[in-house]
Amino acid sequence: MIEKSGFYMNNRVARYMISSLQDLMGENGLNAVLRHGGLPDYQTILPPDDMLREFDFSDYGAICTALAETYGPRGAKAFLIRAGRAGFLNGIQSFLDNYGASLEATGKLVPLRIKLPLFLRWIAKNYSETSDRIVRIKDQGDHYLYINERCPVCWGRRATQLDCHITLGFLLEATGFISNGARFDIRQISSIGMGDASCDFVVPKRPIPT
Ligand SMILES: [Zn+2]
Questions:
Q1: Whose CB has fewer CB within 10 Å in the chain, the N or C terminal residue?
Q2: How confident is the model at residue 110 (pLDDT cuts 50, 70, 90)?
Q3: pLDDT for the residue numbered 90
Q4: 150 CA distance to ligand 1 middle (Å)
Q5: 109 CA from centroid of ligand 1 (Å)
Q6: Which of 135, 151, 155 has its CA nearest to residue 59?
Q7: CA 81 to ligand 1 centroid distance, Å
Q8: Segment 174-208, tens digit of pLDDT
Q9: d(CA 200, ligand 1 centre) in Å
Q10: What is the helix (H) or strand (E) element at residue 129, kind and residue range?
């Protein structure tokens, strides 16, 4: 069992992640994963649907580890990308409640080069304000860097590959949302679990040409 981190996600984000995994693999499948990770079963670990910061990073990381050990890196990747996408879709409503007015200002007429960085910065701000994650965005010329300096996926883990897939799935869905359905070639390039200072993702400024 990994020692508790003392850093917390809000319950709602953790709940979306866990209930998405339950949708994807069924309650028995998820319980097998949780048991493997030495975690409580689905009904017990599922946090309430509120914004209190109570879900410890170490439990979040332990779920990701147990998933990789149960389904292998490729299987876990498929599940976590889908859970990340679902997490964005589930969370977008409360997100819009917080940032809706400004988001409206970035409607269809506003070019992507303006609304993409705004949206990425809102996401970073939102995550940093509603959890103990530390996220910032850096403009790198032809791309943005999404920098996660305190990553729940990596908490207490030694990773052998770039595998913060739930963040990748979230960013894929978020960039699709803000661009009216375009696809972006987003890549993770560093990982705290592999010894880097932060978990960084390259978000190109332009989508994949169609
Ligand atoms: Zn990470």
A1: C
A2: confident
A3: 85
A4: 8
A5: 35
A6: 155
A7: 14
A8: 999 999 899 999 999 999 999 999 999 999 999 99
A9: 8
A10: helix 112-130
